[in-house]
Design brief:
about 20% strand; globular; eight-stranded parallel barrel; alpha/beta; single chain; TIM Barrel
């Protein structure tokens, strides 16, 4: 880790290591008056305490029209300075360089007063045509960036970063597909970059040459007629000459291809934008920061060692584990709680305009409410039924608090349905969750795991639990569909397919187009199987985060897969089915297999046995009600902290 933990000079600012916590909109910690609250401060304090060298607060709005999300910090008035100062004073208790990102959302904002360089609608997420900015308004916006930077300086921030990436206002000026102006702010490259350059000059004039200013900019928009790496390589030396103290190289806008790449899910390779930072680094002398699903400190250290970038930005990895830097520096790599790239607690919540959290770390957004995990004064003998993600997460916390925990699992390995969910293409990061819990439970000496066993009275008498946690998960539900079992097709569940108790190479129908059904379709199609998916819902995999789902849907654009939605089965044939898809009638025939993927059903057969013994019983995860990992991990965390 020696390369990752070398100090670095950024302008007049010395940063203790090369780790940056990326700016992320979290949509919490700002009150109705726009003041930063203890909720945001404690969230950021936890990451500062965790050893990170540099933290960038995600998206402070420079104007009311630029407010991207409802609960972002406001910077457009001096009245916001006291609450910001209170936050910087708190975070500066630790040796961290603390900065604010300056944001104007432009056409990508969730309100009706959207503005842009040209009246061109956003490519994705936000609907509607924005109003074109006048020259006077452009110059007022430039002044607003400078004034906001001065307020950040007065509030005690060490630096600011201009958000010039991801399709927000600065990007909209840079890219030809969003900037159709014919005045001095549009047309040729020299004119399109004018807005950004004048922002940098304005900030430097108002804050002084020594106050560090970074620029987050796309290496590539990944969209037709958008900003490209060649453009970035042209502007990078110009930004350096104008006084930019570092360049933070990201990519994509909402609407890019491949879809979802702006916030890459587990389908994207780790370090997916690294090549862009590497190219830009060759054109400038100021530090260049790499970003893009960098989640592993070993990988991060290699990036610095190999000279691909000067610093490494790790966003969601800091959501998952605020102590990432300290653990890496101490060599405690096995204790780092990994980001699994599921996008459920962070991006999915954000796009729903809800508060962000994290599947792997449900404490996110509750840091100001929670105490450090302490040993209980009343340790109990606790029996946990099921070694799936809920049972494992609960057992880890209960074990850390000093309870004596025994986990019983009928299968030969831990992980439950997550181990199977990690099998389809692009889903292997899910195994990182199970491996983490396995390492943690091996480290915690008062937790015992018993595999290949079923709960019975004899075991209860042996363990003598004072409390029990039912985390036995769920199994595929069987739909009530006339003729389903009269067909000549072999009928299977998604579990049969992923466990490969059924090896399907012949043409296959999948009944159900949710996440599991589509991922099994992807799994079979990659092996060369012809697949038809009959989805009785109106949307495919609606339970998946949007940026994760679009990766999957793109993978399913193959001749081997046919997707039908809004399906009403008319009749099952010996080797196929007739059905309506919307108003259209279809027949599919010549299929050998039928896979059922229409939801899960809780398994609670141990509950009666435990209740009969008079044992305090708690039910969590899918055993309570089949839902996503987000709910199961939240329930496990809550119970683990309070039992």
């Amino acid at each position: 880790m020696k390369d990752l933990f070398r100090p670095i000079q950024i302008g007049g600012m010395l940063v203790k290591n090369r780790i940056v916590m990326s700016p992320m909109g979290v949509n919490f910690g700002v009150d109705g008056d726009g003041m930063v609250t203890e909720q945001l401060s404690q969230y950021l304090l936890a990451r500062a305490r965790g050893g990170t060298g540099m933290i960038v607060v995600g998206g402070g709005a420079v104007q009311p029209s630029g407010l991207d999300l409802p609960a972002l910090p406001r910077l457009w008035d001096d009245c916001f300075i006291p609450s910001l100062k209170k936050m910087t004073d708190l975070v500066h208790r630790y040796d961290v360089k603390f900065g604010m990102q300056l944001l104007h959302g432009g056409r990508q904002t969730y309100h009706d007063n959207r503005v842009a360089p040209s009246p061109v609608p956003a490519e994705g997420i936000v609907k509607g045509i924005p109003r074109e900015l006048t020259i006077v308004e452009i110059r007022e916006t430039i002044e607003s960036f400078g004034d906001s930077a001065r307020r950040c300086q007065d509030s005690g921030f060490d630096f600011v970063e201009v958000h010039g990436a991801h399709g927000y206002l600065v990007t909209q000026f840079l890219a030809p597909n969003s900037n159709k102006r014919t005045d001095e702010y549009g047309g040729c490259l020299e004119n399109r970059i004018r807005f950004l350059l004048e922002i940098v000059r304005n900030i430097k004039r108002k804050c002084g040459a020594q106050f560090p200013v970074g620029i987050r900019i796309n290496g590539d928009d990944y969209i037709k007629n958008g900003w490209t790496i060649q453009d970035t390589k042209k502007i990078a030396p110009i930004l350096e000459l104008e006084g930019a103290d570092y360049l933070h190289i990201s990519a994509g806008i909402y609407g890019s291809f491949p879809p979802g790449i702006t916030i890459p899910s587990m389908y994207a390779e780790q370090g997916c934008f690294l090549h862009l930072a590497d190219e830009v680094k060759r054109t400038v002398h100021v530090p260049v920061i790499a970003v893009g699903r960098i989640k592993n400190p070993i990988h991060a250290n290699r990036i610095i060692r190999d000279g691909k970038a000067d610093m490494v930005s790790m966003g969601r990895a800091h959501l998952a584990d605020p102590d990432l830097a300290n653990k890496a520096k101490a060599g405690r790599l096995s204790e780092i709680r990994p980001c699994i790239g599921c996008c459920m607690g962070c991006i999915h919540q954000l796009f729903s305009l809800a508060e962000c959290t994290c599947v792997m770390n449900p404490a996110v957004n509750r840091e100001y409410l929670l105490k450090e995990i302490e040993e209980t004064k009343n340790p109990k003998r606790i029996l946990v039924i099921g070694a799936g993600p809920a049972g494992l997460a609960f057992s880890r916390l209960a074990g850390l608090r000093g309870h004596k925990v025994t986990i019983v699992e009928e299968q030969s390995c831990i992980g439950g349905m997550v181990r199977l969910a990690a099998i389809p293409p692009g889903r292997s990061d899910l195994l990182d969750m199970i491996k983490y819990f396995e390492r943690e439970l091996n480290r915690i000496k008062n937790v015992e795991i018993r595999l290949n066993v079923s709960l019975d009275n004899k075991m209860i008498d042996e363990i003598r639990p004072e409390a029990a946690v039912l985390a036995s998960g769920s199994l595929p539900g069987i739909p009530h569909q006339q003729g389903l079992f009269d067909t000549a097709m072999a009928v299977h569940t998604v579990i049969d397919v992923l466990e490969e108790t059924s090896v399907l190479t012949e043409p296959t129908i999948i009944l159900g187009g949710g996440q599991a059904g589509l991922q099994v379709a992807d799994f079979l199609a990659e092996r060369g199987t012809e697949v038809v998916v009959l989805n009785r819902e109106r949307h495919f995999a609606s339970e998946m985060p949007a940026n994760d789902r679009v990766f999957l849907m793109e993978r399913l654009k193959t001749d081997r897969v046919k997707l039908y939605k809004d399906v009403q089965i008319h009749e099952f044939l010996p080797n196929g089915a007739t059905f309506y898809s919307g108003k259209d009638f279809h027949t599919v025939d010549g299929f050998d297999h039928l896979v059922i993927s229409e939801g899960m059903k809780s398994t609670r057969h141990a509950a009666d046995l435990l209740r009969a013994e008079g044992i305090e019983l708690h039910i969590i995860g899918d055993a309570k009600n089949p839902r996503s990992l987000l709910e199961s991990q939240s329930e496990a965390d809550e119970l683990g902290r309070t039992i």
